[in-house]
Automatic annotation (TrEMBL):
Organism: Caldinitratiruptor microaerophilus
Protein name according to UniProt: HTH cro/C1-type domain-containing protein
Pfam families: HTH_3
Domain HTH cro/C1-type: from-to ranges: 5-59
Lineage: Bacteria, Bacillati, Bacillota, Clostridia, Eubacteriales
InterPro entries: Cro/C1-type_HTH (IPR001387), Lambda_DNA-bd_dom_sf (IPR010982)
Length: 84
């Protein structure tokens, strides 16, 4: 989320303060999202994506390997529950 969100914000010529006002959050929250210290709640992530004119998955692209690994692990556990 860090780089994608910052790049999209800068491409639109927005400051963290501008984006925060448009989304209905604080500049501090935007800073935390861009630094990777915190992820926005799902509803706010959707609003951020709409405001920044990017697909929501683009904001979370860097987390895809973690998500894929987690989902793959769960799927393999559910496929053969007898081997736990």
């Amino acid at each position: 989320m860090r780089k994608a969100m910052r790049d999209a914000r800068l491409r639109l010529g927005l400051s963290q303060e501008d984006l925060a006002q448009m989304v209905g959050t604080t500049p501090e929250a935007i800073g935390l999202y861009e630094s990777g210290e915190r992820l926005p709640p799902p509803r706010e992530a959707a609003i951020l994506a709409l405001t920044l004119r990017v697909p929501v998955y683009e904001l979370f692209r860097e987390y895809a390997p973690l998500f894929t690994a987690t989902v793959g692990l769960r799927a393999s556990q559910e496929a053969d529950p007898g081997e736990r």
